[in-house]
Amino acid sequence: MAQQPQLQFPKGILPIVFIGIILLIFISKSTVTLDAGEAGVLWKRFAGGVVTDQPPLGEGFHLVAPWNTVIVYETRQQELTEKMKVLSSNGLDIQLEATAWYQPVTAELGFLHQTKGTNYLDRVLKPAMRSATRSVVGRYTPEQIYSSKRDAIQEEIFDETKKIVQDQHIQLNDVLVRDVTLPVAIKDAIERKLSQEQTSLEYKFKLEIAQKEADKQRIEAQGKADANRILSASLTDKILQDKGIEATLKLSQSANTKVVVVGGSDGLPLILGNN
What we know:
By secondary structure, this protein is α+β, with helices and mostly antiparallel strands. The protein has helices spanning 13-30, 109-115, 120-137, 142-146, 150-165, 184-234, 237-252; strands at residues 31-34, 38-44, 49-50, 60-63, 69-74, 78-87, 93-104, 170-181, 258-261, 270-273. The longest helix has 51 residues, at 184-234.
């Protein structure tokens, strides 16, 4: 049986293939592409570790030595939502849900990675937010938290959390209190009280309207009385006679037949019609 010829590579090609594979690996390990909203922290194996004296790598294509490492961070605004059980000023349990908007300080990414690492959220922001929330809520009653002071509580949580993280290479943009859950009995009692207060305010408003209307009528009546009093004081007998004579003269010029008799009991003319 005839033997099939064996495939043989030209001498010297195997080293070239081997070198090519090494080069491909070298190149693949030496390139980094950062997407939009990302930045890279450079870690140099043989030159001091994390680079903190230079800006982080920006978006786009980068060449780095294969023995170095690039740690990628998202620099866009991100969202953290925490559900917490906290105590009010009178010791009642309250379930509160808050959301923080944050992002790492891009120029300080090297320090952030060196001191906190990629899990800085669990190491810094979450504990800071929980601590601030417990501190702030502990100053208020359940009624204040549920109704009138919610905006103030939200602002205070933001301020206190920001103070904690401001030196931790983290930028806190805002804190929102999304939900407050009270014990059912406390919530019902607060809602009843608020309803009663609303009814009381409505009744008070109606009383004020009624009082204003009464004052208006009293002022109008007083005005009319003062006008009548002034008019009565100014109408003397002489003025009445003059007015009567003036009216009589106007009537005497009418086309209707009439008789004018001068000298009534009160000194005023009398008008007698033909009817």
